[in-house]
Amino acid sequence: MSKSITMLAAFGLIAAVAACAPKQQEEYVVVAPEPISVEPVYTGKYK
């Protein structure tokens, strides 16, 4: 019985330490999107 209580206490301690550990922050990389199509250029009246 004392062996199971010791194991339960050990798992509880490990869980508490893991829950309190500082979490690593994720890095966010933002990339500017390229234009899908080129805007039309005015070249004259009827070209």
TrEMBL record:
This is Lipoprotein. The lineage of its organism: Bacteria, Pseudomonadati, Pseudomonadota, Alphaproteobacteria, Rhodobacterales. Keywords: Signal. Residues 1-18 form the signal peptide. PROSITE patterns: PROKAR_LIPOPROTEIN.
